[in-house]
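Recall from the previous lesson that a structure prediction takes nothing but the amino acid sequence as input. Here we apply that procedure to UDP-glucuronate decarboxylase from Paenibacillus hexagrammi. The sequence below is the only information supplied.
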Amino acid sequence: MKKIVITGAAGFLGSHLAKRLIAQGNQVVGLDNFSTGRMENIAELTESPLFTCITCDVSQETTLLHSELNEAEEIYHLASPASPKYYQANPFSTILVNTAGTKHMLELAKRNQAKLLFSSTSEVYGDPEVHPQPETYRGHVNTWGPRACYDEAKRLGEVLCYEYWHRYGVEVKIARIFNTYSAGLRNDDGRVISNFVTQALACRDMTVYGDGSQTRSFCYVDDTVRALELMMESDRATGETINIGSPVETTIIQVAQWIKELSHSDSRITFSPLPADDPRLRRPVIDKARKLLGWEPRVGLSEGLCLTIHAYRKQMALNGGD
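The prediction returns the following tokens.
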């Protein structure tokens, strides 16, 4: 049994990871300030003696005073808003959790001689001029725009990891996560699949931003979580940045049409102006993940969408159709 810290434990990725690690018999200490995370995501875990939940803000240095963090062997630093809707509404806290919060978790890793995985993002590539994107690509990011608070904070978080690895020998691993989805996403999350599924099941207009020709690479949450675990376990991943995502590229309009068909919805597909700095293309090169981790996604988009639609429909029925 290992003692493992997860920041953002009540969030989308964090809660999935916490459930998986506890099912394996590990002791998990979850940290969350519940700004975007939800207690219902971890409700089933609160009954487990293997789970401890601490309500705190990892951007505050006082977080390090919690004795429950002592002797932790692994740290998954996942805390951060990830939806443009939420990080644009809270830019300063987004910057702080990925910079000051990252530094505090690195200090904890240094103190405990623990391994740390930092959840970075495909957003570090910005609106890419290289396609698909390998880890060696340095990105095309606008520092003066509504997405910069997230994109640049993640880039600086990577720099902090680099410095702690080179200066102090902290075993860091950086996962550049591409679009991840499943039913665990809040239906008001604002990301494309949660938006489309919620709108389709409610028979509301499905809103496509731009003309829908922009592309994304969607990875089901089970595959992403499995990749994070493999990264943490692998010594070969130490000091590395690794793309985690699906190498299958899909246009947004295709996703809307598939969700409409799979949900048997009568919704209309409508179009609105594209938000500022919205990337036109997004697809990872995952050769490094294949080589170092033996990982690639197993759940195809069609299967994942069916699972997601089924779970959203079930939840809406429980909520009386809301």
